[in-house]
Amino acid sequence: MESAAGAAPWSAVSALPAVAGTVVVAWALLRSRTDRDVRTRLALPTAGCALASLAATVASAVAVGAGPPEEARGYWGLVEAGVLLLLIVAVVRWSPLRERRYAVALAGIAVAVWPAALIEGSFLERAGAAAFWLLPVAGAVATGTYPRLAAQRRAAEVARARRAQQLQLSRDLHDFVAHDISGIVVQAQAALFVAASDPAQAVPALERIERAGLSALAAMDRTVAMLGDGDGDDDTAARAALPGLDALPALVSEFGAPGGPDARLEVSPAAVDALPRETGAVAYRVVVEALTNVRRHAPGARRVDVRVDRTAAAVEVSVTNDLGAGGRRPLLSRRARGSGGLGIPALTEHAMAAGGTLAAGPTADGGWRLAVTFPDTLPTHRKESM
Q1: Which of 92, 120, 148 is the endpoint of a domain?
Q2: Does the chain have fewer CB atoms within 10 Å around its N or its C terminus?
Q3: For the chain, what is the radius of gyration of the CA atoms?
Q4: pLDDT digits (tens, 9 = 90+) for 303-323
Q5: Among the listed residues 236, 239, 242, the one whose alpha carbon sits nearest the alpha carbon of residue 175
Q6: Which of 99, 120, 141 represents a domain boundary (last residue)?
Q7: How far apart are CA 232 and CA 370, in angstroms?
Q8: Domain limits at 18?
Q9: What is the pLDDT of residues 223-244, one digit of tens each?
């Protein structure tokens, strides 16, 4: 009877850490249904349970050999270790790094030393028992670490995707809006020049300015529409609305309007048929960028030739401007040379994504030529029939 009466307090002491840990786990599970952030606050309760476990272990170590205390500690110690291992997984998975360190360290020590205190053998035997129980601690840490790292990788992928989307947006704005705005500037300058001598000639220039402004607004609307989820009708319509080779006549005509150089377009119908819509949109962007560079970096150019040719195995779209007024080759910026900026480098990436190659460089007469070459995707039976 005396032994049973003495075992009761020891059983309560041994059960306390296991019961406390079980309460913490149950609390986290119930609260997580309405408050998912509760999982990030488990470090402090886990540390408290670990300290209670260590205290019970020390108390049982003092009473080793007393019979009932040792037996009670053994039963509850297994439950306690299992609960602490669950808490270690949760803390490693969700808790902040600063709090995670001390909570996992305390809980790991508590799991490792609880059986060692019940062994009446040598120090090496106790150390071996502690080392053995470090294995499930390591497993719990690994179990919590893997999904945490996976979540971090997903977050990094989302950040990279957003960054790529931002770069795509800036490139779209550069390729389309910058062209229209530069056209507005040129037409405004031409209108100012002729307004004093022939006011009637200023009206067509103002109409061209209006069309360029509307085109810039449409390009911005299309770019914003592409920032959607990518699987909706608006995004599909926006991509389908991208201008292609069929829009080149209007583009070149606007570029060669009064106040601009003599712009000429030569298009092979077979070349237009040989390119799919998306590749044609890339070719259109190349022409837009080339014409924008002519306005910005070769304002004295007198003639610009835009050609779309088809060879036996490829389709080439090129834009060539002459030496320019004054008999001197115009100085080209780093962006025009293709060594930086958002212009030619970005178009090179677009061309490569469509399976083509882009080249830009001076011509023999001192002008400048930009060309993109795409593989001919026209089916063989259609080639033979043409």
Answers
A1: 120
A2: N
A3: 37
A4: 899 999 988 778 999 999 987
A5: 242
A6: 120
A7: 35
A8: 2-120
A9: 677 665 545 455 445 454 567 8
